[in-house]
């Protein structure tokens, strides 16, 4: 991972000063493995462009943790199992696919010279990026299979254009030269836990200060849920800190759905708390993997779950557990 140090950070103070914790932000309590396993989903709040798991032939025990998969387990351990262990297929959704499209447009816009990063140019990228998405992920074609006249598709693309256009009211891309875009990061903690993820944008000031930026095509959460929304960003900050020995100066969430920007300036103590939380979370995942006990956690989010047919809460039956489980110290096969 390389940060080019000549780039600039728009709107971020050059010096290391400033408040470590914004007013009204409360540090999370230290969780136990059990508490984390039953926590509410936070990592993917408002993120319509969240990663989609790709099915593979053989099931494998989890070997790493990303913000999205951490969010799955905190939302519902059984959901985590369905996505990570069983790799059950998921239907594409209009909201998530639109998020992927908008992310691609914002990434590609920075290929143009600064003076040419305008709303018309950004909107003009939408059709081409949609065609590219259809080529790389043919399954998205089914979203509009029942739209022979293309009217619903046209509205959907127009909404993507509006989200792209709104971004220009929140940031000025002509003043930005990102050090990295769609940056894959991965690190292994001393405990052996491997953390990985993809950061939408990294800005680096001439003084070396780092800003991590993430685009959200949904709406900003209410203030009482802002801590949960920042979980993903603190996860990324932890990875960057462990990789580069630099604590990011600022974490920034750009909500295109509502036109809001949420920022947070982390300190080492924040990242240490996140690391402890992730270690507790990983211990809970490890225990569930070994015992085969993945409990459902019903919430209002169940209404959007693709896996109701396999969920006991909806009268379904999970598929046979594909991994060996440990019972009283013996390796057996869970039926």
TrEMBL record:
Spans annotated as Disordered: 1-67
GO MF term set = exonuclease activity
Cited InterPro entries: PDDEXK-like_dom_sf (IPR011604), PDDEXK_AddAB-type (IPR038726), Restrct_endonuc-II-like (IPR011335)
Keyword Nuclease in record: yes
Q: Which keywords annotate this record?
A: ATP-binding, DNA damage, DNA repair, Exonuclease, Helicase, Hydrolase, Nuclease, Nucleotide-binding
Task: Enumerate the spans annotated as PD-(D/E)XK endonuclease-like domain.
Answer: 64-312
> Low complexity: which segments have biased composition?
20-67
| Annotated protein name in UniProt | RecB family exonuclease
């Amino acid at each position: 991972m390389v940060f080019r140090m000549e780039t600039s950070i728009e709107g971020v103070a050059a010096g290391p000063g400033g408040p470590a914790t914004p007013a009204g932000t409360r540090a999370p309590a230290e969780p136990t493995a059990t508490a984390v396993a039953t926590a509410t989903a936070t990592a993917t709040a408002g993120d319509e462009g969240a990663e989609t798991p790709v099915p593979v032939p053989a099931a494998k025990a989890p070997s790493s943790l990303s913000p999205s998969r951490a969010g799955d387990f905190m939302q519902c351990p059984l959901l985590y199992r369905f996505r990570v262990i069983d790799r059950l297929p998921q239907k594409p959704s209009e909201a998530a696919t639109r998020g992927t499209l908008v992310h691609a447009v914002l990434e590609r816009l920075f290929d143009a010279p600064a003076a040419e990063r305008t709303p018309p140019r950004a909107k003009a990228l939408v059709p081409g990026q949609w065609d590219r998405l259809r080529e790389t992920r043919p399954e998205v074609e089914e979203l509009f299979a029942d739209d022979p006249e293309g009217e619903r598709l046209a509205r959907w693309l127009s909404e993507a254009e509006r989200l792209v256009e709104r971004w220009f009211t929140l940031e000025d891309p002509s003043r930005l030269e990102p050090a990295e875009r769609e940056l894959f990061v991965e690190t292994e903690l001393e405990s052996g836990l491997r953390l990985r993820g993809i950061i939408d944008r990294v800005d680096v000031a001439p003084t070396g200060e780092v800003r991590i930026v993430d685009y959200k095509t949904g709406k900003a959460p209410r203030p009482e849920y802002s801590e949960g929304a920042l979980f993903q960003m603190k996860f990324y900050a932890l990875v960057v800190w462990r990789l580069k020995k630099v604590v990011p100066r600022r974490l920034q969430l750009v909500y295109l759905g509502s036109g809001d920007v949420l920022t947070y300036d982390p300190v080492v103590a924040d990242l240490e708390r996140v690391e402890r939380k992730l270690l507790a979370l990983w211990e809970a995942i490890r225990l569930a993997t070994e015992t085969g006990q993945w409990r459902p956690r019903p919430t209002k989010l169940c209404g959007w779950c693709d896996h109701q047919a396999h969920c006991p809460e909806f009268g379904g039956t999970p598929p046979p557990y594909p991994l060996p489980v440990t019972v009283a110290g013996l390796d057996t096969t869970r039926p």
